[in-house]
């Protein structure tokens, strides 16, 4: 007799299904937590930030060093200094003809002959091609003799090919062939954080290599050279490294070591190198022409501050503000005017005035380029034929006359009508109309904005200021809290200044 009850079987099946279901739920939960299956919780959570990609193993600095060292040379220079120490005797007895006859001319000659001494300096250089070597201008400046020592200890007398003090670069040549070189790299593709090696002869210690990273690019306004677009690095650079190579992990030349920032005379963690793009342009010009030919627009430019950007209707402080144009220059012929803000050259954005200056200098003379500028808050295009950069010189003076004073936003300024005397003292164009600033009150808004004594105010808020009478009339109409745009001439150079009360 079967004593099993029908209810017991159903209950058993039900319990089994519950256990299976619970197991499936637990399994799905674990799978979701382990990332095997998507979960609603994972979908609702914010996505974590992506980690930077690993670059793999460290570069093989040993092989890079072996490849680049032979192309870096030691440069030593000698300069003969003629001093005036000693000189002819000053005792009146020696001036007497009797004593000259008594002692003889040979005795006097030892006093009259100027003393001489030799001044020596050390630096580095990089072989680039066919016996040509690039170094810094300050390494070989005024040298009477240049000696080059190769990595294999051979010595040569270097011949100066050309120098460019504006970029602190120079090229010399030695009578040798089949020399090792370093391939040029593209400095425009450098990224902050890249490994670099500095190769040179610090303190005369030949073939020294130091390693660091690119700390910054496009460094300007450092005060080392006229044209600056430096690569900043923390690779140790010391006296004697000047003119040496800065190479990347591929063994390519991406810079010429030029200077260091120091308060002790030695390495303090900041070094500067001329980027390869600028260096190659200068070097090619020195070798082919014996001088550097730079492109030229014929404009005076200045940085665009946030205040100036607001005045000229710019969304951001970028580009270069044209504060003056030379008559007959390429820019004037193309239709560029004072007050235009150049923001692009051939569709390449111009970050600031220094960037524009470097780009134009590197353009080939005769090249046709297109400028984009903002004028009256609207974009305009200009087709310009690049000219050759001429030399220019400005002089200034420093008078201290009193004149008319202004109030409101121009309070603190004392001005005077322009005159031939003022023009001569300040180096101002005598044909210009305007008022000369003869005093700037310390702590005034004008001083904070950068107005200086000797500035010739040409315009106030784009309105001409031919004399003191018009200056005062315009000044009286200015609001107390109104921002003021001045156009001034400073020692022959014009620029815009914004005064914010």
Topology:
Elements: H1 6-33, H2 40-44, H3 61-68, E1 72-82, H4 92-95, H5 97-103, H6 105-112, E2 116-129, E3 132-135, H7 137-140, E4 145-149, E5 155-157, E6 159-164, E7 169-173, E8 195-200, E9 208-219, E10 230-233, E11 245-247, E12 253-260, E13 271-275, H8 276-289, E14 295-296, E15 299-303, H9 306-311, E16 320-325, H10 330-334, E17 341-345, E18 348-349, H11 353-361, E19 368-375, E20 378-385, E21 387-388, E22 404-405, E23 413-417, H12 420-426, E24 435-440, H13 445-449, E25 456-460, E26 463-464, H14 468-476, E27 484-490, E28 493-499
Antiparallel strand pairs: 1-2, 1-4, 2-3, 3-7, 4-5, 6-7, 8-9, 8-11, 9-10, 10-13, 11-12, 12-13, 14-21, 15-16, 16-17, 17-18, 17-19, 19-20, 22-23, 23-24, 24-25, 25-26, 25-27, 27-28
Could you write a compact summary of the structure shown?
The chain is α+β, with helices and mostly antiparallel strands.
Give an overview in words.
Helices cover 24% and strands 32% of the residues. The chain has 501 residues and is of the alpha+beta class. The longest helix is centred in the first third of the chain and has 28 residues, at 6-33. A hairpin with a 2-residue loop joins β27 (484-490) and β28 (493-499). The protein is elongated, with a radius of gyration of 35 Å. The strands form 5 sheets. It has a 7-stranded antiparallel beta sheet with strand order 5-4-1-2-3-7-6. Strands 22, 23, 24, 25, 26, 27 and 28 form a 7-stranded antiparallel beta sheet that branches. The chain folds into 4 domains: 70-173, Thrombin, subunit H (Beta Barrel), CATH 2.40.10; 187-289, Thrombin, subunit H (Beta Barrel), CATH 2.40.10; 296-388, PDZ domain (Pdz3 Domain); 404-499, Roll (Pdz3 Domain).
């Amino acid at each position: 007799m079967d004593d099993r009850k029908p209810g017991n079987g159903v209950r058993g099946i039900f319990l089994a299904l519950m256990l299976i279901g619970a197991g499936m739920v637990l399994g799905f939960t674990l799978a979701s937590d382990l990332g095997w299956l998507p979960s609603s919780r994972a979908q609702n959570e914010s996505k974590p930030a992506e980690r930077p990609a690993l670059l793999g193993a460290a570069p093989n600095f040993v092989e890079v060093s072996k490849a680049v060292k032979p192309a870096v040379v030691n440069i030593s220079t000698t300069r003969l200094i003629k001093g005036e120490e000693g000189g002819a005797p000053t005792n009146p007895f020696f001036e007497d003809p009797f004593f000259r006859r008594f002692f003889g001319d040979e005795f006097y000659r030892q006093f009259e002959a100027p003393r001489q001494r030799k001044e020596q300096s050390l630096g580095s250089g990089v072989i680039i091609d066919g016996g040509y070597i690039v170094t810094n201008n300050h390494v070989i400046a005024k040298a009477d003799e240049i000696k080059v020592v190769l990595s294999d200890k051979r010595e040569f007398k270097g011949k100066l090919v050309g120098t460019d003090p504006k970029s602190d670069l120079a090229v010399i040549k030695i009578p040798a062939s089949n020399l090792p070189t370093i391939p040029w790299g593209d400095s425009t593709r450098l990224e902050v954080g890249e490994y670099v090696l500095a190769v040179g002869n610090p303190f005369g210690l030949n073939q020294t290599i130091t390693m660091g990273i690119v700390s910054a690019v496009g460094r300007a306004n450092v005060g080392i050279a006229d044209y600056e677009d430096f690569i900043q690095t923390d690779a140790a650079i010391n006296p004697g490294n000047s003119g040496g190579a800065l190479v990347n992990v591929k063994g390519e030349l991406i810079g010429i070591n030029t200077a260091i920032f120091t308060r002790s005379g030695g390495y303090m963690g900041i070094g500067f190198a001329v980027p390869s793009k600028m260096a190659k342009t200068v070097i090619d010009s020195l070798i082919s022409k014996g001088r550097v030919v730079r492109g030229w627009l014929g404009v005076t430019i200045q940085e665009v501050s946030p205040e100036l950007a607001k005045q000229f209707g710019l969304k951001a402080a970028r580009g270069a503000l044209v504060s003056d144009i030379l008559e007959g220059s390429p820019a004037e012929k193309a239709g560029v005017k004072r007050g235009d803000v150049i923001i692009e050259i051939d569709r390449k954005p111009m970050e600031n005035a220094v960037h524009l200056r470097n780009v134009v200098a590197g353009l080939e003379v005769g090249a046709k380029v297109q400028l984009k500028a903002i004028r009256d808050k609207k974009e305009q295009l200009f087709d310009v034929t690049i000219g050759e950069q001429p030399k220019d010189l400005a002089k200034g003076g420093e008078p201290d006359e009193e004149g008319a004073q202004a109030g409101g936003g121009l309070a603190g300024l004392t001005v005077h009508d322009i005159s031939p005397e003022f023009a001569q003292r300040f180096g101002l164009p005598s044909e210009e109309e305007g008022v000369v600033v003869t005093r700037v009150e310390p702590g005034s808004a004008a001083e904070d904005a950068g107005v200086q004594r000797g500035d010739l105010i040409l315009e106030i808020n784009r309105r001409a200021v031919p004399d003191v009478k018009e200056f005062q009339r315009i000044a009286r109409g200015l609001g107390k809290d109104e921002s003021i745009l001045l156009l001034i001439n400073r020692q022959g150079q014009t620029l815009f200044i914004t005064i914010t009360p």
